[in-house]
Amino acid sequence: MSGGDFRRSMPEAHADLRRKAGLMQSLHIDLPLLVLLMALSAFGLIVLYSAAGSELHYVKRQAVFFVLGFIGMFIVAQIPLSMMQRWAPWVYAGGLILLVLVLLVGTGAKGAQRWLGVGGFRFQPSEILKLAVPVLLAGYLSRRLLPPTFKHIAWALVLIGVPTVLILKQPDLGTSLLIAQSGVIVLFFAGLGWRYILGALILAASALYPMWHYVMHDYQKQRVLTLLNPEADKLGAGWNIIQSKTAIGSGGLEGKGWLSGTQSHLNFLPESHTDFIIAVLAEEFGLLGVILLMALYVFIIARGFMIAIKAQDSFGRLLAGALTFTLFVYVFVNMGMVSGLLPIVGVPLPLVSHGGTSLLTLMAGFGVLMAISTERRRVTL
């Protein structure tokens, strides 16, 4: 090929590249992330069918929420980042009002008052704050000089602390800790100095005694004691974790086969279709199935951090990093509590455990990631 032919061929290739990128940009889709989410969702439905005792009711309900979740993800992805930043304080304020209403007129179950009922439909307002807190904090800090000063750190901690305390009063220790970490990680990614981090660790250590005696409820203390010695009450508090570890260990390398797990199908394993669903997966698909699941999570998390790194401004970087790290915390906490490494705090396994409101919130977070990704493409192409 002559030099002239080479020069003539470049505009056509460049135009084709722009057309392909433009299609993804116009639809606001991050294709690698979408493929990974669909693969994980499909795998989750397969595991859920067995965990729910082959009852299609749970699978159909979860499939409906998946459809709604993906639709919500695409809708959120169309929202410009500037609009998210502008509306975050209002969403945050609305979420706080709903949390106060939960404490006043909320509905309860199993000793906790965490839901609001509207027209026969029940939802958890705390799910709104899982997304509102990192968006608000990312917007607040990105408009200021980084790393943040003591004044800005103090205000950020107030914004984190108010919803955390309100949720803690429901009581819902697991969700309050997740929301707190989603805000703190924004501070960390903003360049929080190590002296502040060390001070926070010392403060947290000194707060353990008063929290144990004056903040934590009896059932929360029991979960910690059960973690340290589950065999102390084999038929009571330790039953869940003992049966979970039995299911995980009995799966071996390749598992007993789909629909062939004994711990869940013989009702030894409680909450098998929600918090403890990975124990079902480990029993039926073995170590290989767990590795496959973890690989999907690793690829999704890696894609999220790649989006954060390539974001064009501080708001996008802080927000994408916080949302991605929050997904990691979800996975880590669920797997840790099911395997007996962490206390049981009721954290579902993302896109695998049966659930409605939490799934919609999670998919909205992925929509934000896609908005950040396509915002980058719109600027750079």
From TrEMBL:
EC code(s) of this entry: 2.4.99.28
HAMAP family the record matches: PGT_RodA
GO molecular function, one term: lipid-linked peptidoglycan transporter activity
Location in the cell: Cell inner membrane; Membrane
Species, as recorded: Simiduia aestuariiviva
Keywords for this protein: Cell inner membrane, Cell membrane, Cell shape, Cell wall biogenesis/degradation, Glycosyltransferase, Membrane, Peptidoglycan synthesis, Transferase, Transmembrane, Transmembrane helix
Protein's pathway: Cell wall biogenesis; peptidoglycan biosynthesis
GO (cellular component) term, any one: cell division site
Signal sequence interval, chain numbering: none
Biological process (GO), any one: cell division
Transmembrane segments: 31-51, 63-81, 87-107, 152-168, 180-209, 285-306, 318-345, 351-372
Catalytic activity as recorded in UniProt: [GlcNAc-(1->4)-Mur2Ac(oyl-L-Ala-gamma-D-Glu-L-Lys-D-Ala-D-Ala)](n)-di-trans,octa-cis-undecaprenyl diphosphate + beta-D-GlcNAc-(1->4)-Mur2Ac(oyl-L-Ala-gamma-D-Glu-L-Lys-D-Ala-D-Ala)-di-trans,octa-cis-undecaprenyl diphosphate = [GlcNAc-(1->4)-Mur2Ac(oyl-L-Ala-gamma-D-Glu-L-Lys-D-Ala-D-Ala)](n+1)-di-trans,octa-cis-undecaprenyl diphosphate + di-trans,octa-cis-undecaprenyl diphosphate + H(+)
Keyword Nuclease found: no
Keyword Transferase: yes
Family under the similarity heading: Belongs to the SEDS family. MrdB/RodA subfamily.
Gene transcribed to yield this protein: mrdB
Membrane topology: Multi-pass membrane protein
Pfam families: FTSW_RODA_SPOVE (PF01098)
Physiological role: Peptidoglycan polymerase that is essential for cell wall elongation.
InterPro entries: FtsW/RodA, RodA/MrdB
Catalytic class of the enzyme: transferase
Name listed for the protein in its UniProt record: Peptidoglycan glycosyltransferase MrdB
